[in-house]
Amino acid sequence: MGSLADVLDGKIEVPYEIIPHFPRSTVQGHAGKLVFGYLSGVPVVCMKGRFHYYEGYPLWKCAMPVRVMKLLGVTHLVATNAAGGLNPKFEVGDIMLVKDHINLMGFAGNNPLQGPNDERFGPRFPPMNEAYDKTLIREAKRIAKELGLENIVHEGCYTCLGGPNFETVAELKMLSMLGADSVGMSTVHEVITGRHCDLTVMAFSLITNKCITAYDSNDNPNHEEVMDVGKMRQDVLKLFVQSIVKYIKQTEDSINP
Ligand SMILES: O=P(O)(O)O[C@@H]1C[C@H](O)[C@@H](CO)O1
Ligand SMILES: Nc1nc2[nH]cnc2c(=O)[nH]1
Question: Where is the Nucleoside phosphorylase domain (predicted)?
Answer without folding.
Answer: 13-245
